[in-house]
Specification:
about 350 residues, alpha+beta, about 40% helix, binds iron/sulfur cluster
């Protein structure tokens, strides 16, 4: 990331022509006051079926070919295409807490850095899909900040693809393990998730809070992580959501707002499909996002993402909350886990 003064961003006409009159904000339900399921606006697994499909293809077409990036994407496609094993004939029995604790093996093995579980809310499922499995296991993989900090240059973008590759491989591994144990399981890999939103279940299972930049923040990894998921009928114990006061912190911080070249990050929450929340203006973000192979400036500049900063910030927020409340507050909770 550069500190140079920058000129106002003007979107490439070749991209805006492909967008035509479509508004991603309208598809996302900006200013809608009724709760409804999400519609797919970008990262369709099959771009030819999406309103934004041609624009999504341009994301790749405009890029200067880079051997490492092409290799990372090819490896991710291979992982996504991997067949899962058949569901085993015998259901392994464990208590719900034991099931959830078993997920730690994938962190220990280095497949991912974070796991959590929650019940699948049908309102998280895209409106062209159906929820068919009751639980969702969330997996988080951490960025290498030394690589991520180079966004929007390709070097930073490669770490985004590298981590999506890791996240996809982790989801396939967890889904394969569950099937071997006799349970139905389906891997959901990003960025073309196709079936279900990732951020709401990740918040529900304790991965962190929604930040003003529209991504999740937690003290351990800031926003410097990527997600994948596994839908399953295995009877996991849910991991609870966590609150560090980040939502309030965002209302007083403007770092990402000021850093976003197309000024897509609003200072206040917006009403989106019946819920007031932080929301990134899709129609402003997406041209810059496409021209820079994924941008990610907002997550890289977020102070929570800087190495060794998040836990200190969380501790300061805890002390501040304690001062304001005039009473003892609970200590900062650990990463998500079953109780
Ligand atoms: S940069 Fe500041 S306002 Fe933006 S998400 Fe991070 S903490 Fe919140
Ligand atoms: S991804 Fe880039 S363009 Fe989009 S909101 Fe973040 S900083 Fe702005």
């Amino acid at each position: 990331m550069s500190n140079k003064q920058r000129a106002p961003f003007i979107a490439d006409a070749r991209f805006t022509d492909l967008l035509g009159n479509y508004s991603g904000n309208a598809v996302n339900g900006l200013h809608e006051t009724t709760v409804r399921r999400p519609s797919m606006v970008w990262w369709a697994p099959d771009p030819s079926l999406a309103d934004f499909g041609e624009a999504q293809k341009w994301f790749y077409a405009q890029e200067e070919p880079d051997a490492e990036m092409l290799d990372l994407r090819a490896r991710r496609r291979e992982v996504v295409a991997q067949q899962l094993p058949d569901v085993g004939p015998h259901k392994q029995t464990r208590t719900p807490v034991e099931w959830t604790n078993e997920l730690q093996q994938f962190v220990t093995a280095g497949d991912c850095e974070m796991t959590g579980v929650t019940t699948l809310d049908p309102d998280w499922v895209f409106d062209h899909e159906e929820a068919c499995l009751p639980n969702i296991v969330m997996l988080g993989v951490q960025h290498d900040y030394d690589e991520l900090r180079h966004v929007p240059e390709l070097r930073g973008g490669k770490d985004v693809t590298r981590q999506y590759l890791r996240a996809a491989a982790a989801a396939k591994k967890v889904a394969g393990w569950l099937r071997d144990q006799g349970h139905r399981a389906e891997a959901v890999t990003g960025p073309m998730t196709g079936k279900v939103l990732m951020i709401p279940p990740a918040i529900a299972c304790g991965f962190g809070e929604l930040g003003k930049h529209g991504s999740i923040i937690n003290p351990e990894f800031g926003s410097a992580f990527r997600l994948s998921a596994v839908l399953t009928d295995a009877p996991f114990k849910e991991t609870p959501p966590r609150d560090f006061g980040i939502d309030d912190f965002c209302s007083r911080c403007r770092v990402c707002e000021n850093a976003c070249p197309p000024e897509a990050i609003a200072p206040d929450k917006q009403m989106v499909r019946g819920v007031e929340k932080w929301y990134v203006d899709f129609d402003r973000c997406i041209p810059y996002f496409a021209e820079t192979s994924g941008c990610a400036i907002c997550i890289a500049v977020c102070p929570w993402s800087l190495p060794n900063v998040g836990m200190n910030l969380a501790e300061k927020l805890r002390r501040r909350a304690k001062r304001l409340a005039g009473e003892a507050q609970p200590v900062v909770p650990d990463t998500p886990r079953a109780e």
